[in-house]
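Continuing the batch. This is chain 6 of the set; chains 1 through 5 are on the previous pages. Same settings as before, nothing changed between runs. Recording input and output for traceability.
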Amino acid sequence: MKKLSITILFFLLAFCQINAQQAKYVFYFIGDGMGVNQVQGTELYLGELEGKIGITPLQFTQFPYTTVATTFSATNGVTDSAAAGTALATGNKTKNGAIGVLKDLQTPVYSVATWAKERGCRVGVATSVSVDHATPAAFYAHASGRGSYYEIGKDLYETGFDFYAGSDFLQPQDKKNPQAANLYSLADQYGYAIARGYKDYLRKSKKADKMILFQPEAASKADRSSIPYAIDRGKSDLTLQEITRSAINFLSKDLSKGFFLMVEGGKIDWACHSNDAATTFHEVIDFDNAIKVAYEFYSQHPDETLIVVTADHETGGFVLGKGPYELNLQVLKNQKVSESGFTKVINQLRSKTNNQVSWEAVQQALKDNFGFWDKIKLNEKQEARLKTVYEQTLKNQQVKMEKSEYAQDEPIAAEAKRIINEIALTGWTSGGHSAGYVPVFAIGAGAEKFQNRIDNTEIPVKIAEAAGLYTQINHSKDK
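Output for chain 6:
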């Protein structure tokens, strides 16, 4: 009788596993540069804003399944975004800098988004940076070097997903062949409508078979490489929430097919390259707000939807605590602009005064944008540091811009950022990537697969298994 009961139990378990609900709708969120401390730091910051020591949880950190993933590439202990994006998209390690190919830089490998398309699902790839940037490109392109932006843009059309979104094309014209068609002109040829901003999307989406959503042209003229940081955003700026909502709306035109959607919070990484803690927290919150849009959809289709949230790597070696056993993160609420945003403020002062900016004008700008002297008391050394930078770069015009991966900023902006980071008791070990674990969160159909420590190459495989795609893929492991 006991043996019979065990046999029945195994049969029932096998039956349930075979007949478990597959994920018909898949959301894959990638926070570029978003390590464990970027997430926990944001929650601790939100907790301090509520007057407590402890966390105020983000939406995605409350998902029932959580683990961590390793991120090394095929050739480096510390990955870049191209190799990490390829791992997260295709399940294959590759050389730093390569997109959708193995480390031989020739053998193409295909993404979970492509596997979904081959099954007949509708597919979208979206980001807050340019649509041809490393992470989104890894889902549709194949290139030995991530900087081949024009060729990557052509791959976007040839792969032919239903929906793409980002700030713009980074290189719409072929620099090697000026006579070649620019990427905008190819849209009609491949059956795509291009919308500029959320309102334009709403006007064009109903009649469009395939869609590319970019930010408004005025925003691209100012900076085509990304949509603005959340902390710097104006009312007319495209947001990651709007991008996500547009993608879901477009892919839901035929729910019977199911869909796959990848959304990247690309500027978490940029803020971390700049070692800008306040801007980083705002970007993580903004990323979470985009995930909330997907969670709304999940709430309506809980048995058929899978949401997976992770990161490609950690950026900056972000540190929470600098010696004293305390944090002062709430002070960061006084920072009203990013480091780059404050550079623009200083540039406006330069223009307004014909490059004769007074210390008093700089002080007022620092009060308005960082709360210094007003809401945040500076010690003599901190004030002296700001005054010295002012005298060198604004008074004596010995300007050497401070460079990070994606920005060149006024030294006074960089120094103000460093000082408020110090007061908040946060720190950074570099301006580049690190090999730290990245978090993984999951909810919905197949979410239970995301347990125990995993490698980044396992994530797309687990998604494919959850969605019933794995048997149909050409999964080439580079061993």
